[in-house]
Specification:
Blueprint: H1 2-13, H2 35-49, H3 60-63, H4 66-81
Helix pairs in contact: 1-2, 1-4
């Protein structure tokens, strides 16, 4: 999962204007992102990790932090492999 976190950090970091983000930190509480970012993040996750984000996946807790995103990607991959 480390590679996934690194990939996610790279994407999210582009919006943080040089600010370091902890893996467990709430991305949306930082004030550096907006609703457009949320849409870009979903699109990035789908393309980078080849998963489909369904309507029921659109819970803020799946996207709140690097840890949450990496866990979400892992769950989607596991569900897709089953």
């Amino acid at each position: 999962m480390t590679d996934e976190k690194q990939t996610l950090r790279g994407f999210v970091g582009k919006f943080m204007r040089g600010r370091e983000l902890r893996d467990d930190e709430d991305i949306f509480a930082t004030g550096y992102v907006n609703s457009m970012f949320a849409m870009q993040l979903v699109q990035f996750v789908e393309q980078a990790f080849e998963v489909t984000v369904e309507g029921e996946d659109m819970e803020i807790d799946n996207f709140r932090s690097i840890d949450a995103l990496a866990g979400f990607v892992q769950r989607k991959r596991t569900a897709g492999a089953a």
